[in-house]
User: Which sequence fits this backbone?
């Protein structure tokens, strides 16, 4: 099949959506499909046209990383999308902002349009009674809808009586994300926690930092935080203020290829999110054999339970600390890590994700 995918961001951008789209495209190419991606010139120096892992990539300008900038990118990318959808078997909008340029590009054509609804941004807009009706009309443009979590699927279906959404949890490339030698050696005998979160308010890293003195009181740990964002300086200052700066290291953003080694440098991963769709990063940690402690929000309870780690209430440093100390002290970390890896391989691998996309694409084309 000839498949065209539209998404605002694509590697070298780092994030769950970016990883999901990249691995899906790469998996489809490996099965003999022709895959073209229309995305944005989101970083200086990126090529307008290139081939990455067999994926043909076209980039168009992104004026800013704001709702206005995304809207302008959607409008500006429509001519390029129109050019590449000629002869396509199926077109896939990765996230709702990509629906309109795809629909406009397909005007007058019978090519099926698929949409995957990602991110907490969709949930926030759907909760706005002024915006929700227009959002529903947008989703209705698609012939088939996926969602990254049950919460997103339920909200999507609530926007219109004819809207149907299939839950399809994001996948992990389990041959890349697997137990490997840690990239950061241990020098002090402490347990190590890994927090692979970009430093934005919705990811709740502040609550982890506030919990750290209580964790240190109950367990001898240090911490690496992997990710950058506008809260970085404030969080470092907070760690110094409450006396844990010597226990936490902010590594900043790291290339995706380095992540398996960085994740495997820890004993457990912590996800203190306030809002979450389905966390690709949490699945990547599980695939690497790390137990996961996570907030009980969004799609996280779909993938995290007592067999692989544990859940705690969002925005509650005391509960976060108690759960982490409990998991570190009960002797079950290694077993939880093994179960997490087994679950990802069985239920949430990229192979399974590609299988389902091929099924849906083939059914739409055949229909």
Assistant:
């Amino acid at each position: 099949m000839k498949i065209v995918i539209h998404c605002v961001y694509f590697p070298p951008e780092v994030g769950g959506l970016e990883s999901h789209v990249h691995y899906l495209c790469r998996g489809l190419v490996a099965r003999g499909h022709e895959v073209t991606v229309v995305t944005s010139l989101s970083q200086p120096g990126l090529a307008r046209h290139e081939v990455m892992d067999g994926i043909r990539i076209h980039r168009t300008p992104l004026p800013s990383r704001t709702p206005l900038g995304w809207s302008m990118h959607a409008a500006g990318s429509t001519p390029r999308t129109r050019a590449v959808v000629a002869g396509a078997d199926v077109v896939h909008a990765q996230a709702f902002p990509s629906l309109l340029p795809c629909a406009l590009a397909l005007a007058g054509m019978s090519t099926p349009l698929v949409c995957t609804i990602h991110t907490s941004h969709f949930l926030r807009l759907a909760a706005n009674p002024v915006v929700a009706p227009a959002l529903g009309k947008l989703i209705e443009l698609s012939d088939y809808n996926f969602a990254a979590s049950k919460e997103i699927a339920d909200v999507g279906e609530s926007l219109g009586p004819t809207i149907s959404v299939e839950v399809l949890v994001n996948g992990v490339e389990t041959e890349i994300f697997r137990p490997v030698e840690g990239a950061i050696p241990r020098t002090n005998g402490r347990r190590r926690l890994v927090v692979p979160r970009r430093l934005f308010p919705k990811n709740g890293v502040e609550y982890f930092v506030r919990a750290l003195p209580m964790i240190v009181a109950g367990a001898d740990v240090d911490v690496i935080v992997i990710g950058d964002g506008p809260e970085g300086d404030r969080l470092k200052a907070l760690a110094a203020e409450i006396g844990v700066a010597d226990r936490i290291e902010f590594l900043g953003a790291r290339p995706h290829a380095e992540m398996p080694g960085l994740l495997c440098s820890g004993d457990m991963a912590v996800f203190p999110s306030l809002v979450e769709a389905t966390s690709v990063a949490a699945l990547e940690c599980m695939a690497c054999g790390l137990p996961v402690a996570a907030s009980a929000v969004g799609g996280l309870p779909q993938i995290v339970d007592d067999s692989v780690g544990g859940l705690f209430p969002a925005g509650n440093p005391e509960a976060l600390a108690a759960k982490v100390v409990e998991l570190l002290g009960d002797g079950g970390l290694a077993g939880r890590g093994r179960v997490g890896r087994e679950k990802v391989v069985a239920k949430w691998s990229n192979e399974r994700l590609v299988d389902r996309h091929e099924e849906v694409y083939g059914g739409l084309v055949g229909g």
